[in-house]
Amino acid sequence: MEQPDPGAAAPPAARGGPISHTIFRVARLHRMLAGQLLRQAGLHPGQELLMMHLWEAGPQRQTDLVAVLGSDSATVTRTVTRLERSGFVRRTSCPHDRRVTIVTPTPASLALRREVEEIWRRLEDLTADGLTTGERDTALDVLERLERNLAEATAERCARTSPPRRP
Hints:
Elements: H1 18-39, H2 47-57, E1 60-61, H3 62-69, H4 73-85, E2 89-93, E3 101-105, H5 109-127, H6 133-161
Antiparallel strand pairs: 1-3, 2-3
Helix pairs in contact: 1-5, 2-5, 3-4
């Protein structure tokens, strides 16, 4: 795999959005590094987020995982299937509603949790290498603000493009 040039200039068509172009590049590199680190644990990026949620919240309806992860049903189904094949989750039918699937972390996933937590510490260290505590705090504040801006813009666009609900 060819290594990306971290200082690559934005193509002319992207020059109107230097922050957006940089976010794209940073996100791609972060995901690439996360993937390299997670492979050591036998995981793909995104699988650890689902596991983190299950470790904290306990068994969940698969449809709730879709909402929590901000993903789509097909992606979560594929993720859960892979995690189930690896022995990290178990799927069962809800006793009250057979149409509902419950996803539960297995005891085998507890060792994985420690490994994932260490991988995330390493990812954080590599990502923020050379930043002072103040710079880390500032970076986090700016990223959280960007996230809020994007969430609000997305919600507004969804509200404008959603068909009206029928009474």
